[in-house]
Design a protein that fits this description.
globular; Four Helix Bundle (Hemerythrin (Met), subunit A); 4 helices
Length: 149
Amino acid sequence: MSARPCLERPAPDHEEKAVTLLLPITLTTASVLALLGMVISIRAALTRGKTGILIGDGGNHDLIVRMRTHANFVEYVPLLLVFMGLLELAGVSRTLLMASAGLLVIARVLHAVGMAGKQPNLLRAAGTVGTTVVTAVYIVCGLMQVFAH
């Protein structure tokens, strides 16, 4: 077994064929957001360990905030990644996809950092607005793709 299993490619058949990475923008974005999601999840788990609250929130403010930060992340990010992949497959502008991917990553970081601060705050609001803008752009692009065909 190779030391780099994520990079293995099947042996070529009769002739060498160029292998094109499918959905590179979505894959990159998903990888970065998965890292952020893991950090958010670990922060909630550490708070659970620190407080001894393994089920629910026990009324602990810090745990409630970290649980909501994680929940908000999983409420939005998976849908937007699926949407991004579908738009990338549909041939939507790479520039638009890269810009929206960057905005989504920044928005999710801002939201997560903002959730940890005093409420309300500008970071959380900016993260919310950024996520909403990406959602709206994807809805419009998706519908344009549908009605164009």
